[in-house]
Amino acid sequence: MSTEALSSAPPAPGLRLGLRGKFFLALLLVAGAMVLSMAAAANWSFTRGFLGHLNALAIDRMDDALPRIRAAYVEQGSWDFLRGDRRVWFSLLRPPMPEAERPSQHWENNLRAPPASDLTGAGLRLSLLDAQGHWICGYPTVDGDAVRRPVVVDGRTVGYVSLTLFEGVAAAGAERFQTSQQRATAAMGACALALAALLAWWLARQLLAPIRQVAQATHRLAGGDHDVRVAVTSHDEAGRLAADFNQLAETLARNAALRREFFADVSHELRTPLAVLKGELEALEDGVRQPTPAALGSLQGEVGMLQQLVDDLHDLSLADRGSLTYRMQRMDLRELVASVVTGLGPRLAEAGLRWRCELPEAPVWIEGDESRLRQLLGNLLENARRYTQPDPALPEHLVVRLQRDGEQVLLEVMDAPPGVPPDDLPHLFDRFFRLERSRSRVGGGSGLGLAICRAIVQAHGGQVDAVASPLGGLNLRVRLPGHA
């Protein structure tokens, strides 16, 4: 087996560790490291701090006793008076008594039993060595770490006073104290680790519960359940994640519904002209109808509808991908509107509609694609022509108005009744949306014209919306950025 295969193989099921387990172990390891570091710091502080302080006090006491030891040597002339006499040695180490309590200035008159201990234990850890470093009296064990002070008489070193540091004392009391400290530290560490484990378990369960719910919901969503939702119980990152998931699920559900509607609408739009074409061709084959210019014109009309539908779908697919080509240039929108309305005038008149075009006197400059804007205005006017009823009692059925609105340009196409229910106004620019649910081709088109209009307007950096018209019908408003 190759190395690549080994590295890309999924982990064994028994070795998998969930996010909660990883979070629990991470917190437990952090807490354990903190406990160990605190124990090490306490031990270091005790060894280097407290014991160091005791050793410093003991060194001060040794330095304080050094003049008395030197004076005793000068008076006796040798160290023989100390050999085997611990009572004299401890009297030299004892701090001097207050002046009022001193019976005599002679050191021999002040001999008394040494105290059993002192604050630092220095009296029990001091040793006297001769000039060659041999032990004379005091603490019998002198190691290499002991602190030594020379006893100098007339410029000559006659001996040494040695202090064994606290760390080197192997007394049973010190060992018991150290053992008790270690046991207390271990007990406190165990309790701290147990408390940390409980806290880590609680945090892992509480903090990761929303993420686990989102993960489970994501699995269901990936399986096609678009109705799944996650409860938002907080306002932190987990809450925002749940809210974003709900929004994603709603978007996917809406897109799935739109996709189903899209395929249903496309199939319906294609089925109608194909059924007509099939019927007409069968009638021609059976001899029921003759290939007259009228019959061929009917077939041509259905083919034209199919071609228009295919072209609209192609334009929308290009717009969705951002591939719809635009050739932007500075142009006079007033001139374009006048040209398009004049060109469609005969079709409007043929439908029995009276129209009026309101244009400003000065040119209206914009940055746009002339062919796409012609398509935009043509779709808007065709929508008005298709749905407006030619009521003879009305003075006008269609008004096209172009004007400047601050730094923007406002183009309005207002028509006469019938109007559009307010609830349907936001959906007029959706694909295949038509007010006639029967899809009757007598009044409605493919339902793609206004969707294409919105894509063209957005590509020009503008906005398009639909409101009620003052004429009683629909007012389609297009706002485009102006150009100097």
Short description:
The two termini are 71 Å apart. The chain has helices at 3-8, 19-76, 86-93, 122-125, 172-222, 237-286, 293-321, 333-350, 370-387, 449-459; strands spanning 126-130, 135-138, 147-153, 156-163, 329-332, 355-358, 365-368, 398-405, 408-415, 463-468, 474-481.
Structure characteristics:
disordered N terminus; alpha+beta; 484 residues; Helix Hairpins; 3 domains; four-stranded antiparallel beta sheet; Heat Shock Protein 90; rod-shaped; five-stranded mixed beta sheet
Write up what this structure looks like.
This protein starts with a helix and ends with a strand. It is an alpha+beta fold. The chain is built from ten helices and eleven strands. It folds into three domains: 149 residues, no CATH class; 83 residues, Orthogonal Bundle (Helix Hairpins), CATH 1.10.287; 156 residues, Heat Shock Protein 90, CATH 3.30.565.10. The strands form three sheets. Strands 6-8-9-11-10 form a five-stranded mixed sheet. Helices cover 52% and strands 14% of the residues.
